[in-house]
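Dear Dr. H.,

I hope your travels went smoothly. While you were away I took the liberty of generating a structure for the chain from your last submission, since the lab meeting agenda had it listed for discussion. I wanted you to have the full record in hand beforehand rather than looking at slides cold. The sequence, exactly as received, is reproduced here:
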Amino acid sequence: MANDSRETRVRIEPTVKKLPKLQDGDTPDEQPRNLRADVFPTEGYVLAIDGKFKSSYATLAEAMKAGTDLKGKFPVIHVAVYDTKEKTRTPINSPATE
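The corresponding predicted structure, in token form, is as follows:
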């Protein structure tokens, strides 16, 4: 047993990522999609965090509420609401400075 020179071989299997299963009635078009970084949004109101578009909302009130809540939790970040029709940004100030 002093001269035991066995080789150990390990077989590596390729891994395959599986896509999540769709719920009943869902189609791939109904799945939420991330906003693209190279294209400006074309509809609704978009929350911009530190100059980057993060989430979109149907109404200005929803976007302002989400932005105000976020600014209340993290007062250091720059939060603005981007209006896709007017192509303007409305900055949201922290509640303490208003």
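Two observations you may find useful: Residues 80 and 92 are 5 Å apart (CA to CA). The helical segments are 60-73.

With kind regards,
E. W.
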